[in-house]
Specification:
The chain is α+β, with helices and mostly antiparallel strands. It has 5 helices and 12 strands. It is globular and about 50 Å long.
């Protein structure tokens, strides 16, 4: 999966409407737009599935064609930033999450010797109903890991981010709150993609598996902030 962050010239809502209009019925054999969230900071992110190719060059060509032929034409676009998500893994989530729940992301800058240690520990951690990590991936760029979370309030996200820094494996964290999210693809396609990349932690035994939703997907809501 690849994410492309879009930044508006002046009007984020105008850019949001353009993204939804341009990608709402978009079809391609190379690229599938999965969903589009808008952050509280008002940048908009397009989450994309890129068709597997036999080479890195082919992968990059698919992404660049989409950027130049589709994204660059978005009305009100000032800038874009594209990042591939490497070793993306989704996590099972407890059923019956609180009604008042919102989505966040955390980007983590990790000390180089601890890249795998931090990634693996986050995959194997056991989360609760007030804060659940939905996926984890490696990033290229300033930050090394991206986490998507569902949480009842920002304070819990901040406490979680601080706990990562206290391990001394993480140098820095950046929290982003999500204002709204819209699914762009067919729900069944998105669910199948998630199931292919589902990580089953070692503690998820048959005895407690019934307490978890292995294919949970919160994809459209307006959350208060």
């Amino acid at each position: 999966m690849v994410i492309t962050r879009l930044y508006a010239k002046t009007n984020p809502d105008k850019l949001w409407n353009s993204v939804v209009e341009e990608l709402g019925d978009y079809q391609s054999s190379d690229i599938t737009p999965f969903y589009v969230p808008q952050s509280v900071q008002d940048f908009i992110t397009i989450s994309l599935q890129v068709k597997a190719t036999d080479s890195v060059v082919g992968f990059l060509e698919h992404v660049m064609d989409f950027l130049t032929q589709k994204v660059a034409r978005m009305d009100g676009l000032a800038d874009s930033h594209t990042m591939p998500l490497i070793k993306l893994r989704f996590l099972p989530i407890l059923k019956e999450l609180p009604a008042a729940i919102s989505r966040y992301t955390i980007e983590v800058k990790v000390h180089p010797p601890d890249y795998y240690k931090m990634y693996d520990s986050l995959l194997e951690a056991r989360y609760d109903r007030d804060l659940a990590v939905t996926y984890i991936a490696y990033l290229f760029g300033e930050y090394d890991l991206l986490l998507s979370l569902l949480a009842t309030d920002r304070l819990k996200v901040e406490e979680f981010a601080n706990s990562l820094e206290k391990t001394k494996n993480a140098q820095e964290t950046k929290i982003t709150a999500i204002k709204r999210t819209l699914l762009l693809t067919i729900r069944d396609d998105w669910d199948r993609f998630r199931m292919r990349l589902l990580h089953r932690p070692s503690w998820l035994t048959r005895e407690i598996e019934a307490d978890y939703d292995l294919n949970y997907s919160l994809f459209t809501y307006d959350a208060p902030f």
